[in-house]
Amino acid sequence: MRAPTRVPAQGLPEQVTIYEVGARDGLQNEAAIVPVEVKAELLARLADAGLRTIEATSFVHPKWVPQLADADELLATYAPVAGVRYPVLVPNERGLARAIAAGVADIAIFASATETFAQRNLNRTLESQFAMFEPVVAQAREHAMTVRGYVSMCFGDPWEGQVAIEQVVRVGKRLLDLGCAQLSLGDTIGVATAGHVTALLSAFAGAGVDASVLAVHFHDTYGQALANTLAALRAGITTVDASAGGLGGCPYAKNATGNLATEDLVWLLDGLDIETGVDLDKLVATSVWMARQLGRPSPSRVVRALAG
Ligand code: HMG
Ligand code: MG
User: Fold this and answer.
1) Average pLDDT, the chain
2) Which of 6, 124, 245, 264 gets the highest tally of CB atoms within 10 A of its CB?
3) Residue ranges of domains in the chain, CATH in brackets
């Protein structure tokens, strides 16, 4: 059986936007440097599989993330598909200048909900990260770019342990106040469980943030990403981040493994009769091809089940 039986459930959206992060979140965490032509082919294959938002790369410091040091070259050589958005990560004004030179239309800044991770990932304090982002968002908007804001460590931090829900909401609200159009709530190390997701989303609702401006970004370290996604869908979330084949992690976060695999997400959503526009067979073929490039099998259960 190559597809689940479609049985809708009550209280869920009819359509979900999958925000594909494999080419960025996935490849940033690979030990090997993937050739730029392979990255360009990955972007092409993901678009061909029906994904319409594909995070392409990061304009971060090349010494911090050597895996994505070819961002300028990738954007100069890939073949964009009409109707597909290719956002990139941008931490600061230097990164924004590179993104503008590359003709990028959509960017994402990435903040931390904790002090330790702000320092380890951005070389800034929790407070001073906002001063770095402020001119980025203002200038990006002057250039008519859309800006997404990530909040990392929303459900737990490997150095600080538990993270208070109010702290996450405070950081998220500040990104919205700066002018971010969407917030992606990151479970960077995959420790969230479903009740925690519901509680965080209801805290955002209580603070006046509508579910329509929120996305969820689950890493699957403890196998909870699909359960957490269902909790998020029940809370009205309609944008879910995932990475083809379950690639991913964050090089500056201990214990961060791959994201929720896009194939696992599509199997769930297809089964719930929720529209995504993604062709699961083409996506699996892409992840099998990518796994060959990386020299190891995909961790996605759905890829493994359908690959044969
Ligand atoms: P810094 O060392 O404090 O930078 O790094 P600086 O502002 O002091 O500048 C130092 C030098 O770097 C200068 O050069 C700058 O021009 C240059 P010099 O004048 O000395 O010759 N520089 C740059 N060069 C190219 N591109 C740039 C850039 N910026 C400065 N953008 C910085 C601060 C933010 C740059 C650094 O900490 C950094 O690049 N961090 C990125 C870390 C990263 O990419 N982490 C992974 C992404 S986050 C993630 O995965 C989580 C997420 O998936 C959600 C979740 O799971 O929770 C999004
Ligand atoms: Mg991530």
Assistant:
1) 96
2) 245
3) 17-307 (3.20.20.70)
